[in-house]
Amino acid sequence: LKVDQGWHTYWINPGEGGMKLGAEWVLPEGWSAGPLGWPVPIRFRTGDLPGFGYVGEVVIPVTFTPPASATKAATLAVKLDWLTCDDKACISGDAAPSVELKPGPVAASPSAPIIEKSRALVPRPLDGLKLEVRDQGKSLLLSLTVPAGIDPTQFASFPASAQVVDASAAIVFSKSEGKWTALVPKSEYLQGPPTALDLVLSGGGLAH
Predict the structure, then answer these.
(1) Residue 86 C-beta-side C-alpha neighbours within 13 Å
(2) Least crowded by CB within 10 Å, which of 21, 38, 84, 125?
(3) Confidence (pTM)
C-alpha cells in the first residue's frame, strides 16, 4: 500500500474509528494462503480518535502453499478493501489484483528483496518472552518475563487484539519486586474480563 502524504491506513488492530485491510482470496483448488504479515505499526490520531497503522508505503507479505500435485499454471487473485484517513476525512478503497504463476525452474523475481525485507519487519514469537494478564477492574495488569539482555523500558508496545486495551493509553513497563509490569486501562468496548491479548513489542534489544 502506498499512502499519500498526510494520510494513514490501519493495522490489524485499527484502534478507534479505523478499519484494517481486508483480503478475500480467490485461489485454485488445493491452494492455501497464510495470514497477512503485519509490520510493527505507529500510533496516530484521526481527529480525537486514537489509532494504529501506517504512513507512506507498507508491504504486507503473505505466503501461499500449492498442493503437492500442482503442475499447471495457476492464477491467484484477491479482493482487497481498506480505509485511509487524514485529520478531516476518511476514504475507503478496494481493488482486485491477480497474478499468474507458471511452472518452471525456481528463480527470484525482481520483487524478492522487497518481499524479504517486509518479512523481516513482521513481529514473531520469541523464546523466553512471556506475557501474563490480570484483570484489575477497570484496568489490566500486564506482567512480562523477558530473556536476558532485553530492556522493557525501551519497548514500543502495541495491543494487537482490538478493543481490549484503551487505544489511547501508552503501555510502559517498569520493574518492581523483580517483575516487569504495566497497568493499562481497559477499552470501553470490552465486555467482561479479556479472553486473549496479543501484544507486539518493538525495541529494547528485540530484533524488531
Answers:
(1) 8
(2) 125
(3) 0.91
